[in-house]
Specification:
The protein is α+β, with helices and mostly antiparallel strands. It contains eight helices and eight strands, in the order βββααβααβαββααβα. The longest helix is centred in the middle third of the chain and has 33 residues.
Length: 289
């Protein structure tokens, strides 16, 4: 996601302009029925040369720098605002490539919002061209459930059995390390295979099992930028990999999507993404499953 300059409102008696996203003006959809933030005006489009800025007037008092952090510090309020923000972006993404803006990106006026986008219009166009006819997909690999439970602690060894006891402890530790190594290698094999279906791929931070409601440890959390017509190919490949006994013994594969390509819509990482594209193209040519 891009990180534009954020201009906070200084007039708490009126409204301020909240920007959700940028898309090509030639493909900008109608926004009828797209609600945006509660209490705000209708969502609308602002023209910035070849680009359309998706915006909404929202109450300045609700989004003032003195009140906004406290509002978004409430989990329920944060979820409500984030859902409204994402819903607008998703509605636009159904018909056009889109560069999402961070939650609560605010400008004092339409003119300032348009000027901020126009200043980086060339970068926006490059990113939008990259995203055209593509979506983000997720591939997650988790450790297979049902792994052997740790053995119960053994009673303290008698002096005569000390060496044998230490050997058993070392042996169990080595087995655990070997199982972990096999699991990681399995996840790498899955990543190497699925990334060849994608225009670009990124590794994301593995999700914390505690925050995800429990469950097995996540070995891979990958985002793929995929041409629309290759979605079925990805799902079929994931199914083939999941059916491989050598993989199924150690891991479980989950494919999610399609999503708005947040992971690949970063203006400040254009050069890195170009290099990533080049490396992935070379890997797709050289890799062997």
């Amino acid at each position: 996601m891009i990180e534009p300059t954020v201009h906070h409102p200084d007039d708490e008696t009126g409204s301020t302009v909240c920007v959700f996203a940028v898309c090509p003006a030639s493909a900008a959809p109608g926004l009828s029925g797209v609600a945006g933030h509660t209490g705000g005006g209708p969502t609308r489009l602002l023209t910035a040369g070849p680009l359309a800025v998706v915006a909404q007037n929202v109450p300045a008092a609700d989004f003032a720098p003195e009140t906004l952090p406290e509002r978004l510090g409430d989990p329920a309020e944060l979820e409500r605002c984030a859902r409204a923000h994402h819903a607008v972006i998703t509605a636009v993404a159904r018909t056009a490539p889109v560069v999402p803006f961070p939650l609560a990106t605010l400008y004092l006026s339409d003119e300032r919002a348009v000027a901020a986008v126009a200043e980086r219009a060339r970068d926006f166009v490059r990113v939008l061209d990259r995203l055209r006819h593509r979506a983000e997909w997720g591939v997650k690999v988790s450790a297979a459930p049902g792994a052997p439970a740790p053995a119960a602690p053994e009673p303290a060894a008698a002096p005569a059995d000390g060496r044998a006891y230490l050997a058993r402890v070392r042996g169990r530790q080595q087995e655990r390390e070997e199982r972990q190594e096999v699991a990681w290698r399995t996840a790498e094999r899955v990543y190497a295979a699925v990334r060849r279906t994608a225009v670009a791929a990124r590794r994301l931070r593995p999700q914390d099992p505690v925050l995800a409601g429990g469950g097995p440890r996540q070995l891979l959390n990958a985002a793929l930028l995929l041409d629309h017509h290759r979605a079925a190919e990805l799902r079929e490949l994931a199914g083939t990999l999941a059916a491989d006994p050598a993989i199924a013994r150690h891991s479980r594969i989950e494919v999610t999507g399609p999503w708005v390509p947040y992971s690949f819509a970063q203006l400040d990482q254009l050069d890195q993404l170009d290099q990533l594209d080049q490396r992935d193209e070379e890997d797709r040519a050289d890799a062997v499953l």
